[in-house]
Amino acid sequence: MFVSAAQETGIPVTITKGEKTVNAASILTVLSLGVEKGDEVVLTAEGEGAEEALDTLEQLLVTDHDEA
């Protein structure tokens, strides 16, 4: 869900955990971060619509999809 949303932005989006930054539109690189519930990550995006894209992606990360 998160990776698909990152791909749909059409702009470069990265996700960082600790010292490692990866392409948020690649499932394999995102999985390589080993992010677990409660971990803190940093999202960055550049280009037209970056702020809106980050807001959407942030909402996906903070929503407990198991409870939905």
Could you please describe the fold and organization of this structure?
By secondary structure, this protein is of the alpha+beta class. Helix content is 38%, strand content 19%. It has a single domain (2-62), classed as Histidine-containing Protein, Chain: A. It has helices spanning 2-8, 27-32, 50-62; strands spanning 13-17, 20-23, 42-45. Strands 2-1-3 form a 3-stranded antiparallel beta sheet, covered by helices on one side. The model has no long low-confidence stretch (mean pLDDT 94).
Question: What are the SSEs and their pairings?
Answer:
Blueprint: H1 2-8, E1 13-17, E2 20-23, H2 27-32, E3 42-45, H3 50-62
Antiparallel strand pairs: 1-2, 1-3
Mean pLDDT: 94
The fourth-level CATH homologous superfamily is HPr-like
Helix/strand order, N-terminal first: HEEHEH
Tally of discrete structural domains? 1
Strand element count: 3
CATH class: Alpha Beta
Number of helices: 3
Describe the strand arrangement of the main beta sheet, using strand numbers.
2-1-3
* Inertia-based shape: globular
Contiguous uncertain segments of 5+ residues = none
